[in-house]
Amino acid sequence: MYLNPGVQYDFILDAVGKIKTSKLKEACKKALAPRGKYVSIDDGKLMLDSKRLALIKELVEAGHIKPVVDRCYQFEEIVEAHRYVGKGHKKGGVVIKVN
């Protein structure tokens, strides 16, 4: 994830949540606005059911949540995409395009 220095965020969603504590999670929490919210899929609070996913979709489409996309791959390149993610250097999501 890429955080702009000096910018405060109202909401940060950690959709990876590989490590319960990390420097990145601490940096995210420090970057929150005074009433901001940090949610991680590994903290037991985020339940990904279809209603919640629909709400997230609406928020993204309305521009209230702005996903950070690092790279896009075609479905046929999924092995390469997996290798790239495994290197641990991505700065945002990796998209797999399915035709």
Characteristic terms for this protein:
3 helices, 2 domains, alpha/beta, 4 strands, 99 residues
- Multimeric status of the protein: single chain
Q: Would you count the extended β strands for me?
A: 4
Strand order across the largest sheet? 1-2
**Helix run count:** 3
- Give the integer mean of the pLDDT values: 83
What string gives the helices and strands in order?
EHEHEHE
How many domain units? 2
Which regions have little confidence, pLDDT < 50, spanning 5+ residues?
none
Largest sheet: 2 strands, parallel
Tell me what the structure shows.
By secondary structure, the chain is α/β, with parallel strands linked by helices. The protein folds into 2 domains: 1-63, no CATH class; 68-99, no CATH class. Helices cover 29% and strands 26% of the residues. It has 3 helices and 4 strands. It has a two-stranded parallel sheet. Strands 3-4 form a two-stranded parallel sheet. Helix 1 (23-30) links the parallel strand 1 (9-14) and strand 2 (32-40). The protein starts with 8 loop residues before the first strand and ends with a strand.
